[in-house]
Amino acid sequence: MKHKKSSLFSKELASVAFKQSFVKLNPKDLIHNPVMFTVEISTTVMLVESMHQLLVSGISHSFIYNSTIFLILLLTLLFANFAEAIAEARGKAQAESLRKTREETPAKILTDNGTLKIISSSELRKGDIFYCEAGDIIPTDGEIIEGLATIDESAITGESAPVIREAGGDKSSVTGGTKVLSDQIKVVVTTQPGESFLDKMIALVEGASRQKTPNEIALTILLAAFTLIFIIVCVTLKPFADYANTPITIAAFISLFVCLIPTTIGGLLSAIGIAGMDRALRANVITKSGKAVETAGDIDVLLLDKTGTITIGNRKATNFYPSKVIDMNEFIKNSVLSSLADETPEGKSIVELAGADIVKYLSIEGASLIKFTAETRTSGVILKDGTNIRKGAKDAIKKITEAAGNIFPNDTDEQVKVISSKGGTSLVVMKNEIVQGVIELQDIIKPGISERFDRLRKMGVKTVMVTGDNPLTAKFIAEKAGVDDYIAEARPEDKMNYIKKEQLSGKLVAMMGDGTNDAPALAQADVGVAMNSGTQAAKEAGNMVDLDNDPTKLIEIVEIGKQLLMTRGTLTTFSIANDVAKYFAIVPALFIASIPALQGLNIMRLHSPESAILSAVIFNAIIIPVLIPLALRGVAYKPIGAEAILRRNLLIYGLGGIIVPFIGIKLLDLVVALFI
Amino acid sequence: MNTEIIGVVGMFIVTLLLAIPLGKYITNIYLRKKSILDFLFNPIEKFMFRISGIDPNKEMNWKQNLTALLTINFVWFFVCMFILMNQGWLPLNPDGNPSMPPDLAFNTAISFLVNCNLQHYSGESGLTYFSQIAGVMFLQFVTAGTGMAACAVVFNAMKERQTESLGNFYNYFLRSCTRILLPISVITAVILIFSGTPMTFEGKDTIISMQGDTVQVSRGPVAAMVAIKQTGTNGGGFFGANSAHPLENPTYLSNMVENILIILIPIAMVFALGYYLNKRKLSWMIFGVMTIGFLLLLVPTIIQEMKGNSAITVMGIDQHLGSMEGKEIRFGSAASAYWGITTTVTSNGSVNAMHDSFTPLSGAFTMLGMMVNSLYGGVGVGFLNFYIFIILAVFISGLMVGRTPELFGKKVEAREVKIAAIIAILHPLLILAGTALASHYAANDTQMGWWFNGNAKGWLNNPSYHGFSEMLYEFTSSAANNGSGFEGLGDNNPFWNISTGVVLLLSRYLPIIGPVTIAGLLANKKYIPESAGTLKTDTVTFGIMTFAVIIIIAALSFFPALALGPLAEYFSMG
Q1: Crossing angle of helices B62-86/B138-157, nearest 10°?
Q2: Residue A173, Cα to own-chain centre: how many angstroms?
Q3: What number is the average pLDDT over the span B541-565?
Q4: Of A466-475, A550-559, A636-645, B297-306, highest mean pLDDT
Q5: Which label site among A229, A372, A579, B431 has the fewest CB atoms less than 10 Å from its CB?
Q6: Which residue of A has its CA nearest to B415?
Q7: What is the chain A residue with the closest CA to B427?
């Protein structure tokens, strides 16, 4: 996994966002954000009031004061718009860089009369079939229907090692913009132009089809409620003040209102949401909806395939255990002979384990190879002298030996059990129907994986390992790797049933998959991440696609989801906590002129009512750009348990939210006082 | 330590010692476990359900429970209206008191129906014994029972399972009245009778005072009514002077008993929750938050009142007893301050001193108690108000820990937040809008026509900030269903009777409907078992969060209003 470090705003992004900040002043756009919409109304009122002052008294003190407040409110709006625009621009830039890989490329398609014709990739439609050979750039997303090729996917994944993609099976998908390095493939186009996952993602970021997530809706309601409370507070203040003979200026009313409503979170809310999807994209994960990212933060159960996620690739031979009557060297020799022609990773690892010293004297020239079949469930060689060497699972070998009238030795039987209990897999070797011994194969657990599971456990996420191994082996690896549960001898429907069972008890389940037979489970899971190398069916079923094909990516996705919610929560708290100081800045300022005794409430000892109001409004405006980096990066997530996180965030953003504005407004007041 | 302080601390400790076992008892009642009073109440309840044709075992969902609650309340309103408007010719009227005019009857019926007991009349001359018993006292029982039953429905909904059925309102209601309110009231009434409170159906007595004047003394079935008025956070006194009246609250001991009762059931309900859900720690968290809020109001009030009023000190009058204007010498300033705060944080509203005469900051604190309205709060409904704050706190803190917010294994989503937000807004809306209306008329000294005899300023007995406080207090008291008053206000007229009456209705039923609906919706959601990522609600941190939500939503929205009323008065006194 790589993290693309980039500065938060590059110059170009900032200039795009700057322009957008003004475009977004359109009330039609702003109405979706009730908090900022009321700020816009307030700004308009201040504009009218300033104009009024100008007409009545010309360029007077009151005109300057009113128009200053108008300008600060306008800035507040622009800052909020800028936050949203910069988040959009960053997301778009990220998506564009991915999209660049699929610029116009020539595509060789098969015409009706059977000849090849070269057209532009943009002319490809779903269902078209094209050819690619070594050196070609794949013109668009598709699925291989014939052939096998090595492909360089570094343009998308950043991973330089070429990968193999072949027709049939679970690794049949190719992505537009990647390069064929060898061989030739025939590919069917799977998406209409403009409808690929990437296109969908870009649309999400751009806001055209961005929908508020349920959680965002709930928060918007809460913020609207806060706004409403403060409308009530400000409107009723008018008759109160009339009664007390303390006239309050329009500027003071508007300032009190704008300062009290949660503009900070209101201004940053959509930026936070976009930044969440953007962070997912930076992790090379394409999300089909903002909701999926949010749901990821709530995940209770994580289903992980053993191979590739928990263990490194395939099993490796670790030990030779000859049967008691067989000589060790003889046994190793036979094991190697049975594996020399074996192209499977297990076979290769046996040769590796035996060592070059033994291997170099052995040869299988003239021998006939016996490939593994589902029927015999063994593989091996028949040497040219007729010696038949086979290896396979214990049950299969036992059947053959006993059929030949030989007994299966007890010590080997025992050894097989020992290996199983240690989480290993046994390969029993026989020569001419006589058992020679057993080879131990072990899974190699990825370094650092148990720490990651530990981290997940602290987040409250249960990890489940899915494996085709027998229960004994599965249990051993599960314990060693530190997963909480495992599904052994898993068939595709087992995954599905497990997910359903967990969901029935109210849990949210995430899984990663690539195969067509994973598709139902991917669709059933609350968060289904399909690997980009996976089949089209899998990609359609899931709600995220991982471009890196990295099975541990789920862990990162969960953290991104949590960060998204946390950023919303902490900034809401910060925004609301700010009100305490703002009350103490503005309320005395409203009344001091008529009721000097209320100077007692001016605990910050602000210079004058006007400076107090200006300082509060300025603070309210500049806190938005100050917090933009935090909104875009997200609040740091630490797996220290819910209680500890709440304590920490309450201290930083709650208590901080109370104290910071007291200091900020006081400092601003010292400066503002110099000008009035 | 000062004996006055010891008295106050003693009252609180005794309350707590009684509240914990009472909470356990209440839980047993709602869970229908065996209790010692079964032999007495089982047949009575059976009989009542038989004649009313109600099946107490029928499980109802939240909508059915609410319908039952509202229907039964609706009926009571008309019964009470009828009695009040016809009491003149109805029996038990030895003093020959007249029937009530419609606007006052409306305000009184509503006010007792909603457990507020705002009294724009004086009991001695305004009500007959029949009205006191069949109208007022009856409502004092059943409205307290209503609040407790609604609370029991929410308790039931908070259990960790997915369900529609939340128990039977009628059953909760009747059991609350018979097994909780009645026994406590009987014990209290007996203590009061021994302290000297009258319990008679005879009319006014005539005595000759020490100066030799002949004095008519009102009496009646006082002890019985005072008992339930204190127990059920009702607060509507038998006499106009409420518990400052020597026959309603004769001694320091009776004062202690009455004051303990003000907060006894509200606190016991919090502990009942813990026993009911088997979450003892949660009870202590809620109790802790409520108590800290309570103490923040109580301690400065006691200090203010014991210190005396600086304006009186300037006049050269000795104030070593504290600020004694409007207080009874047999209670003293500390016990009066303690009563003042306990009666306002709960929605009781009975008084043993004149709140109008409290020093300005104490006045602000009594108002704050009602503005928050959930530091212990009314019987049953206090917890319901607190529940709204819990929902909001859970939502914000859930986000803060990076998880969709959950309360007891149920996801809190847009719908619940919407309802909670509406209820949270309602309280400031009613108080501020009501006060704004009254201030507007007073500011312009509007000619009020039918609504008020004369110009609007006429209802103020005090000018300036204090007059504003009186209006603010009246609406705050109505919206909190409290019933106490800054009695300087001229409130027995159509304007105040009707405007506060409307506020009373809205502020009683919506804050019951809201929490019950939320609890019902949550109960119907899938239960998610707790995991390491779940935010626990029974912790100190979450308590702080809830407290912060209460301060910022409930208290701070009144800051500008308080600044123009009691705070301006306080700072002006120098």
Answers
A1: 170
A2: 21
A3: 90
A4: B297-306
A5: A372
A6: A218
A7: A229
- The pLDDT tens digits of the residues spanning A642-665 come to 888 899 999 999 999 999 999 999
CB nearest A218 (choices: B401, B417, B435): B417
* A592-622 confidence digits (pLDDT tens): 888 888 888 888 899 999 999 999 999 999 9
For residues B321 and A131, give the distance between their C-alpha atoms in angstroms, rounded to a whole number.
101
Q: Where are the alpha helices (DSSP H) in A297-343?
A: 328-339
DSSP H helices in B308-331: 310-314
Kindly report the pTM of this predicted structure: 0.84
CB-nearest to B414 from A214, A459, A588 is A214
- In chain B, whose CA is at the least distance from the CA of A576? B552
Residues 6 or more apart in contact with residue A572 via CB below 8 angstroms: A219, A222, A223, A262, A265, B396, B399
Show the tokens assigned to A620: 């309210």
Q: Answer whether A297 sits within 8 Å of B403, measured CB to CB.
A: yes
Per-residue model confidence as pLDDT tens digits over A133-165? 888 888 888 888 888 888 887 766 666 667 778
ipTM of the complex: 0.89
Total Cβ atoms within 10 A of residue A185: 24
* Among B479, B474, B481, B478, residue whose Cα is nearest residue B459: B474
Q: Give the domain ranges of chain B.
A: 381-573
Q: Please say whether the dihedral angle defined by the alpha carbons of residues B503, B505, B507 and B508, taken in this order, is positive or negative.
A: positive
Q: Which of A211, A226, A229, A291 to mutate to test the interface with B (most CBs of B within 10 A)?
A: A229
**What is the distance between the alpha carbons of residues B117 and B120, in angstroms, rounded to a whole number?**
9
- Catalytic residue list of A: 305
Determine whether the interchain pair A642/B404 forms a contact, defined as Cβ–Cβ distance below 8 Å.
no
- Paired tokens of A543: 């709600």
Q: Tell me what pLDDT residue B35 has.
A: 83
Q: Which chain A residues are Cβ-neighbours of B464 within 8 angstroms?
A: 244
Candidates A237, A240, A302, partner chain B, best to mutate (most B CBs within 10 A): A240
